[in-house]
Specification:
Mean pLDDT: 78
Helix content: 40-55%
Strand order of the largest sheet: 1-2
Distance between the termini: 65 Å
Shape: globular
Strand content: 5-15%
Number of strands: 6
């Protein structure tokens, strides 16, 4: 194997290892409060910079260790290892980490749900300067920093409707409120265009989907329309069927009325929440 190519591979491995370690590092440091005593605000971007520094340290450590090993193998030559053994060892050192990390490095992950006023992920990723003013402005704390996905989308803002771990109570409702346009007021680059409250109320940022196998009405033929009751946009149609106990209604999401606000998901009383919000390719203003 050409020595220059081998050395280059060691450099690539160090970068891949650093990237692969990033998720594990941020999982550990994501909840660290480094804002200091007396500061009531736990800055998410501070946690990001903290974990980012550790990720950078990991990359450097991997670079030094693997390059040192590479230099050792290249410099010792046949004095320590014959060419066949050297090539076999380098193949293992290169192939295994590359096979494990390259798919993770290249995968795009699920599409993001963007703050109301954005257009599509590609344009938003280009315009977002990662200042996180929208993150701080969001009263329900649903705008968070994206840590997965395409490289161009890393660390941009996104809407995250994920709930706290079991047993923990959410501090705020996990909903993009109908009358809230705070994020669009503070974006300095135009990544989030300014919307009036009336415009925000008609902005579609995602679509809710009913998971029939988890829905009480669909899977058990029992009455439950809590999602319809809590929807601020009247975005549910009712599929009516006849049962042994009379007429039963089952929720069906209207794609032309649903804004993707997550109110139905937040209100769902099923043991495992029977709805989820998926992103749209391009945000749009709805008429209804």
């Amino acid at each position: 194997m050409n020595r220059k190519i081998l050395f280059l591979f060691f450099i690539v491995i160090s970068a891949l290892l650093g990237y692969g370690a990033y998720d594990a590092i941020t999982q550990i440091t994501g909840s660290w409060n480094i804002s200091g005593p007396g500061n009531e605000l736990l800055d998410q971007d501070q946690s990001y910079w903290n974990s980012g520094a550790l990720a950078l340290f990991t990359v450097i450590a991997c670079f030094i260790s693997f390059c040192a090993l590479g230099i050792y193998l290249l410099s010792k030559g046949d004095n320590k290892l014959n060419a066949n053994r050297r090539d076999a060892l380098s193949g293992i050192l290169i192939g295994l980490p590359l096979a494990a990390l390259l798919p993770r490095f290249l995968r795009s992950g699920k599409k993001p749900i963007l703050p109301p006023g954005a257009t599509n992920p590609e344009e938003f990723a280009e315009l977002c300067n990662r200042c996180y003013q929208c993150v701080h402005a969001c009263p329900n704390k649903i705008i968070k920093i994206r840590k997965t996905g395409k490289l161009t989308e890393l660390f941009m803002a996104q809407i995250d409707y994920s709930r706290p771990p079991d047993g923990q109570q959410a501090e705020f409702t996990i909903v993009c409120e109908e009358g809230c346009n705070e994020c669009s007021k503070v974006c300095p680059t135009g990544a989030i265009s300014q919307l009036t409250k009336e415009q925000k109320a008609k902005r579609q940022i995602g679509k809710a989907v009913v998971l029939h196998d988890k829905c009480i009405a669909w899977s058990k033929n029992e009455y439950c329309l809590v999602c319809d009751e809590y929807c601020p946009y009247n975005a549910f149609d009712i599929d009516k069927i006849q049962t042994g106990n009379g007429e039963l209604g089952r929720p069906v999401v209207s794609a032309e009325r649903c804004r993707g606000c997550n109110a139905c998901v937040d209100a769902c009383v099923a043991k495992e929440r029977a709805l989820l919000v998926i992103p749209v390719d391009n945000q749009r203003q709805l008429k209804a």
